[in-house]
Amino acid sequence: MLKFTADKDWSARWAARDSAMADNVVWLKENLFPQRKMIVIGHNYHLARTNPKESTMGEELYRLYGDRMLVIGTFTGSGSYADNARKEKTLTTPDSAALDIKHVILGLDG
Question: Cβ distance 6 to 13 under 8 Å?
Fold first, then answer.
């Protein structure tokens, strides 16, 4: 963060942050849960397997885990949020008949 404060290099800042997040996930997997499946919850930007502009945690993890890694994008069901330009956006009401994340997780083996 100190380097970013001086040079304002957003790409380097994001790459360093996502690399550190990936290192944390790898450490957890190898040291605490070596024989278990893990669920990592995060923002879709960081979990993405590819990003044409930045290096992401998801890209680094995909290089290590390949098809053993499943990425599921989710979003909140109601309310509002601020987009990247800090403009408030209101969410549309979700389809009550659609599956949500708990249905997907409960349907996984193990």
Answer: no
